[in-house]
Amino acid sequence: MVTSRPTSAVPERNSPPRRSGIGRAALSGVLAAAVVLGVGHLVAVLIDPAASPFYALGATMVDHTPHELKDAAIRRFGSRDKQALFATMAVVMLIGAAVAGLLERRRPIGSALLVALGGLTAVAALQRPTATVWFAVPAVAGVLAGVLTLRILRTGGPGLRAPAEEGMTRRTFLLLAAGAGALAAGTAATGRWLGTRLRDVAADRARFLLPRAAPAAPVPDAAQPAVAGLTSFLTGNERFYRVDTALQLPALTSAEWRLRIHGMVDRTVEFDIDSLRDRTPVERIITLTCVSNEVGGELAGTARWLGYPLADLLAGAGVRPDADMLLSRSVDGFTAGTPLSAVLDGRDALLAIGMNGEPLPIAHGYPARLIIPGLYGYVSATKWVVDLEVTRFDRARAYWTERGWGDRAPIKTASRIDVPAAFATVDAGPVTVAGVAWAQRRGVTGVEVQVDDRPWQPAILAAQYSVDTWRQWTWRWDATPGTHTLRVRATDGTGERQTEQRATPFPDGATGWHSRVVTVR
Ligand SMILES: Nc1nc2c(c(=O)[nH]1)N[C@H]1C(S)=C(S)[C@@H](COP(=O)(O)O)O[C@H]1N2
Ligand SMILES: [Mo]
């Protein structure tokens, strides 16, 4: 059998891509990806900001980041870890989008790539704690718009026919590209604007009136030595460290807020802001500490918290005697498991709504969060808290304990040198060394300083405000020329000295003595 072959020659269309073609292809990919994100974000705002493709992907990455990486990120970027993640994501997306554009040159492989990524993003969005089936819509809508953009930029039309860029003039391409750029920027900006209009939590916070409470015991001057560079006893809201898994701040107005107490209780109870107003708030000064704080690190702060004793709120529900955990949940799905004993033993465990005389800043949990002295934040300090389940440690796990961090995490004794600064050069003679130490619930009863390998010397302790706050200390050093290492260690209220043994933050808090190298001339 003979197959007939076409006799007429096919005109050669597949000439090698010109260099300008590569640039155009990459730019087309980048613009298409920008349209995916812009359109996706706009559609998400109408459904739920948490469904935005960029946030959904980022949040999923955060949830699946191994603790070593999370720790390294916090170590390197501190409270800027989110900006670091976003920047990394943006760079990866930019490169991926350019590659998709290049792959699109012969066949619609780039479009296929966009569709696959869109599917992945939709799945990620559907996994968010507050997700409904609608959460898939922004990614799908974004990808449809993105693929259309890519096809039009590559072929001049929406179809799947072979690229005709050779036929497209530079002028036409630039016009189409400008259109795509405007679409991406326009949808993203509209999404942002709508997002703030629809949920103006900042305005709600500005209108929020804190109830009156008997003020916390005043901070005596003796608790705050006047040394330049020494950490101030109270940390301002702007300077307070921030650690959480929320890429996008939860937006919860005080009117929307509810707190449900349920689980192993006699009756489920629910509070809203108005029902709290019938109760008597208290104000307490408490030092909060993050488990991710390294030796010498800055992830600790002290504020005046205004709130309602948690034990009273729980008493209204009637806690069953065989329960031993309070599982708190935030509106964005974060959970913390707190030993009930810590909530009920008489310490100042609070449902806090005020911080340093203001409503909680949104980043610190507006409108309500937990503050429980003596426990690291990840097992106690749930921000944007909306749900308290009374349960048992052998039945429930929480966000970080599911990821291997310690179940019960009392704060370990720590001390830090603030002054002189790291690698500072000071003049020989009398030099003030100063810093802070904390051992919440036990208090700090001693701090010692060592120069090189000489005997340890007792530091002068500032007044102790309470066992739940950090304590400032100073020490006068008769500095001699040369390079010296200063070391600090604290003793807590039980008489136990801070251990020299180095431990990483994982799984339940860092230990070891802080040291600082100083040059004396
Ligand atoms: N909703 C929510 N609450 C949270 C977290 C979080 O990721 N999400 N992180 C906890 C951790 S690890 C710490 S150390 C404290 C930090 O509180 P801050 O950001 O107000 O300093 O919040 C806790 N509360
Ligand atoms: Mo933390």
TrEMBL record:
SUPFAM superfamilies: E set domains, Oxidoreductase molybdopterin-binding domain
Record flagged with keyword Transport: no
Annotated region described as Disordered, given as residue ranges: 1-21, 492-511
Domain of life according to the entry: Bacteria
InterPro entries: Ig_E-set (IPR014756), OxRdtase_Mopterin-bd_dom (IPR000572), OxRdtase_Mopterin-bd_sf (IPR036374)
Membrane-crossing residue ranges in chain numbering: 21-47, 84-103, 110-127, 133-153, 173-195
Gene3D superfamilies hit by this protein: 2.60.40.650, Oxidoreductase, molybdopterin-binding domain
Keyword set, alphabetical order: Membrane, Transmembrane, Transmembrane helix
Domain Oxidoreductase molybdopterin-binding: 248-395
Name this protein carries in UniProt: Molybdopterin-dependent oxidoreductase
Organism annotation: Nocardia acididurans
Lineage, top ranks: Bacteria, Bacillati, Actinomycetota, Actinomycetes, Mycobacteriales
